[in-house]
Each structure stands twice: as C-alpha cells, then as structure tokens.
Amino acid sequence: MKDFIIIGAAQAGLSMAYFLKQRNKDFLIIDKEDQIGASWLNRWNSLKLFTPTEFNHLAGMPFPAPKGHYPDKYEVADYFKAYVKKFDFPVQLNTLAESIEKTNNHFIIKTNQGNLTCKEVIVATGPFHIPYTPKFHNKLSEEMFQIHSNYYKNPEQLQKGATLVVGGGDSGFQILDEISKNTSETTYFSGDTNIRTLPQEILGKTLWWWFTITGFLSFSKNSWIGKKISKSKQPIIGTDVKSIIKRDNVTPVGYTLDADNNTIKTSKKTLNDVKNIVWATGYKPNFNWIKNIELNQDGYPKHHRGISTTKGLYFIGLPWLHTRGSATLGGIKKDAKYLAKSIL
C-alpha cells in the first residue's frame, strides 16, 4: 500500500511530489490525461502566462527561459515533462479517479484502471472542472457554432460570419483579441467593459515584481486585506482592453440575457447575425466524486491550508488555498512545502 497517492500531474501535484520525494515517501501520481502537461496543452494555442520566467520556478528546478520571458503553454508542458524526468517521479497516466472513499484507516480510489489503495490522498486536480455555460445556450440553433473557452484552440475553428465572445475575464479578452485580429467580420463582446486593467510592466519592473515587494501575493485569505482582494473583481492583466474594444470590427453588447434559435438578446441590443459563440464563462467545481467530503457554500472542500476535515485527505491547487500567490506557477511551492511539513 502506498503512503500517498497524488491525483493530478500538473504544477500542484508535481510540487507535492517533490516534497514527498525529499522525505523518501512511497507515492504514486495519477492523471486522467495521456501525457504530462496536457492540462496546459488542451487550452487555446496562443495562451501565454501572465508571469515572467523568474516567477515560474517550481521547487528544485528553475524554469528554463531568460528572465522577463512570458512562456507559452508548450514551454510550460515541456517544463513539467523535464521536471518529472529530473526527479524520476512515479506517474500513471490515462487513469481517471472516479471516487475516493475512506475505510478502515486507508483510502480506496476507484479508477478506470481498477482500484488503488493508500494511507493518504492528495487531490491536486485544480479549480477548472466543469465548463459553465448559461442554460439558454441549449435554445440556440444547431447551425450556430458554440464552444467553451476550455475547448477553443484558434479562430480556424469558427465558421464564416459574426462571432460573439461572452465573458469578461482574462480568457474572454484574450480570445476576443485573437479573434478580432484575425477577421474582418463583426466580433461582438458580451461582458463588462468598465474593468480595471494592469500592464505587465510598470516603471521598468514586471507587475509581479511589484506584487512581490508590496506583499500583494502573500496576504492570507483570512486576513482583512486578503478577504477584500479575494472578493473584489480581479483586474485584467497584460491585455489592452480599451484598444481591443475600440477596433472597428468589435461591438460591445452588454450582458447576454437570453437566446432562442438564431436570436440572442443582450442588455444593449438583439443580435440576429451571430454564427459563432465562444463561452468564456468560467467553470464550476466538482468534488462530488469524493465521498463524505465537507464542501463550503462555493462548492470547494472545507480545509485549512489544504488540510481537509477528513483525516488523511489533502488538497492543493485550489484558488486562494492560502494567498493570491497560490494560483501562480511559482507560488504553488510555498503551499506544497507547508502542506508537506504539516502532514509528514
């Protein structure tokens, strides 16, 4: 029986593996995908990190790129592969965890490859579980091409005609930027255009340098300022939203309210010419496959810095696990180090 099984082989799971190996623990990493880095490779082709190289280092191995470089998804995936190889982590791919149940002081993980048993479990599946789209998307004509940002790769997927991009987060604006750059067709944007933006560099220093020296990334989610930051609308980083919105072929239409067949109702106008919709509308968490787990009102596990209310069950890679930095590639190692120290 393994000491630990880690579910998820991206940055969170690999960070935990590093600290477990340092302590000579017997563990196995399982992942549903067919290769290391797949969770990044599955995202849109032009995706780049908001954080430059110097803020992307996992524990024990620097990110292999020059300072100030903003890596793309392919570089991140290659880094993960090299990380696994360097530390010789035991990884079992193509293994989907279907349920976790604690019984007789150990855990049984049911997978598509059979059952696995271990003394303790670390869930590192991240926050992006079920792509969310409004219910009324089912009322739209089958002739209209609809895709969630989770499956969007590039503008070549779209059919000829106008496109509606729904969602005012980083993903929505990056995809809006790419699509409107690559077509003369109308690109509608549905979301808040009155949003704060931050450049990637300020006074010759990267935004993340400023975040670090001001302590922005280190405020605990339970602190007064941490609570305020976590509940506020996050700014768009590194995307010139105002310039994108001003493009001749970009038309802001407010919020999408309803739809029927080929008609889409928004808060500013009714659209009848849309041929494509990209739903950059986020995700909903799904931890229902873990038996007898306590969830909070947002659907995430109740925990203290990754230590759940079930003895021997841990989480890493959740949004605001401890600080804003918990969601960054380079920040995950602090959470992993703390969790490893607490449970070993």
Automatic annotation (TrEMBL):
Keyword Oxidoreductase: yes
GO MF, one example: monooxygenase activity
Domain of life: Bacteria
Keyword entries, A-Z: Oxidoreductase
Cross-referenced InterPro entries: Auxin_biosynth/cation_transpt (IPR050982), FAD/NAD-bd_sf (IPR036188)
Keyword flag Oxidoreductase: yes
Matches recorded under PANTHER family: FLAVIN-BINDING MONOOXYGENASE-LIKE PROTEIN (AFU_ORTHOLOGUE AFUA_4G09220), FLAVIN-CONTAINING MONOOXYGENASE
Name under which the protein is recorded: Potassium transporter Trk
Originating species: Mangrovimonas spongiae
